[in-house]
Amino acid sequence: MDVTRDSVAAPRRRTFLVPLGIVALALGLRLVHVLEWGATEFFDERSLISDTRYYDQRADEIARRDFVGSTPGFLSPLYCYALAAVYILPWNDMATAKLVQVLLGAATVFLVYRIGRWTFSDATGVLAGVLAATYGVFIFYTGLLFPTTLLLFLHVLAVALLIGGRAGPVRLGAAGLCIGLAVAVKANALLLVGFVPIWLFFTHRAEPIARRLLLIGAFVGAAVLAVAPFTWRNYVTSGEFVLVTTTGGRNLLKGNGPGANGSHVELMASMRGTNLKDYLLGRVDNVNTVHEDREMSAEAWRVMSEDPVRTLGLFYTKLRLFFFARELGIRDQYEFMRGRTRLLSFPWPGFGLIAPLGLAGLLFFARRNRATSLLLVVLATQVASFVLVFVLGRYRVVAVAVLLPFAAAFALDLLRRIRAREGRPVALRLGALALATLVVHLPVAGFDHPDPVGWHHEFLGDRAMMRGKTRLALEHYGRALDAYWPSAARRNSFEIRRKTGDCFASMGRKPEARRIWREIADEIEALYGRSAIETAEGLRRRARELR
Question: How many CA atoms lie within 13 A of 541 on its CB side?
């Protein structure tokens, strides 16, 4: 009897220790990152990332009992409330919020492990979990006050609930609640509210139609209930129907309007309307901002319909960017930030490795079972939603989580077949992997610049100016001007060139400062016309007054 108990206990202990080790790895890496991040120039990203300033400011208002607020939703409403829940605590600071994100990140890794195990095998789950624990972008966002970590957790939890046990109204309601909350973080999750019911209906054919409808009703009903408070809040503040935020039309115009390049671009001044600065300063006309967003949406659709060839070309570029090896960012540029800490500078598995393995795995295993079909639905909705607007690295974290089980399954299957010397199957798999690698790593026109991190050098230049290190500031401003994407360079260069003029003025090189300010004034007036006359005249006045 004792021998039997020991023989059963040993596998159980091993089964318990494996996920524990994966979670410990995820926790350790994320804690080290948060601690290292605190020692960089970017420790308080509110001075760098304007979105974080909004989340922090709105969370502080909620923590002081202003639950409804005075404006309709603008950026990730649920994240503001989640952050406020931390700010209510006695130790209410950014460090505590990041520690909560560390826990969410580790929980996400555990769920990826479980999904891989349920979908394929124990070994696949382990490898998928290790890849999730060490994926640099997942680690990076636990150290920023951004909704990325929360959004990823909600999606992965919903997938785990949908495939991790017998489908019942309670489980499906919990999954719907997660997706509804994800919609309140980023509205593109709304596509899953439409497509998961279709998946449920066709993958649960053994169930009577009445029960399938019950499961679908539980899922959709819970999702609607999760979103409803945010829609109600928007109606109370604006008197208009706004599902979650007033940024849908703005993002559609950024991704498809004049100057669109496939990733994030700033709107021209004449199109900008109410922006984040207005929200931070409390000068928002609620009704007007709703109407502005609708007008932006209408303008985007007009531009898209008038030139369908250009629109299809943009969609193709965005599809390429979604599966592009480089992690595109704005002020949260991962490729730049990873050089600022020892942990991130380590060559962790990146998108350039995981995406080819995952895409090859999709080719061979997409029709394996019910779980793989759900993962395919989630991936398809992620791709479609961001190809419609624009692509950033942080927008595809959910897609990465979906690709991880396929990547792990493909890698293990390939190794097994190589060991068994199965010539033709190995050749087919290596061919698929080579093709996927080519797709992911092939350069995308306009995005082949080696150092696309203009905002960060601008930030470091500002810090150098504050410390009186003018020459260092000039160096960073120069690198910032070189680093912007070509399509955005003209608009983004004005402010940096103005600061370059300030540097020259402080160094006593006044003719150079005057020349730069006058050049900017002429260019701004030529580009924006009457809307920029005041700015242009201000720069010319500074040039005249500099003696």
Answer: 6
DSSP string, 292-328: HHHHHHHHHHHHHHH-HHHHHHHHHHHHHHHT-SS--
Residue 422 phi, psi dihedral angles, 5° rounding: -90, 95
With residues binned 3-state (H G I as helix, E B as strand, rest as coil), the percentages for the chain, rounded to 5, are 75, 0, 25
Calculate the alpha carbon distances from 334 to 40, 261, 344, 453, 473 in Å.
14, 20, 9, 9, 22
Which letter does DSSP use for residue 469 in this model? -
Sign of the CA dihedral running 367, 373, 376, 381 = positive
Per-residue pLDDT tens for 67-124? 898 889 888 999 999 999 999 988 777 889 999 999 999 999 999 999 999 999 999 9
Q: Which fold has domain 454-545?
A: 1.25.40
- Residue the block writes with tokens 């120039």: 41
What is the pTM for the complete model shown? 0.88
- Take residue 467 and report the two structure tokens written for it: 């410390």
Residue spans per domain, the chain: 2-240, 454-545
Contact indicator for 116, 72 with CB cutoff of 8 Å? no
386, two tokens: 């961001």
